[in-house]
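Service request form, structural biology core

Requester: graduate student, group of Dr. S.
Request type: structure prediction, single chain
Budget code: on file
Notes: please return the result as structure tokens.

Sequence provided:
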Amino acid sequence: MISAEVLHRLAQTLETRKQADPDSSYVAKLFHNGQDAILKKIGEEATETVMASKDNDRLHLVREVADLWFHSMVLLSWHGLGPDDVLAELHRREGISGVDEKAARPKD
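Core staff response, request fulfilled:
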């Protein structure tokens, strides 16, 4: 079984690429272009994920979800967050009904 260690290694790589030359690193280019560029990629990958699912293409779906997770990790890194922050939230929600969890959220 593949563990969360993959996410931690990715997070470390993303941190090192933040200061890299944008001409030599895709991640550095995303960081250099700012949050809007990262958000645009997440939107694109989310759409491609939906399309792969609608096509019932399992391999394509897995690849698109990997792209979505990757770009979500870039966004977390942009905000100084990482996989442990998301894993802690999932752990907090474990065993709680989705209906109950959503009802307990502060109202906007």
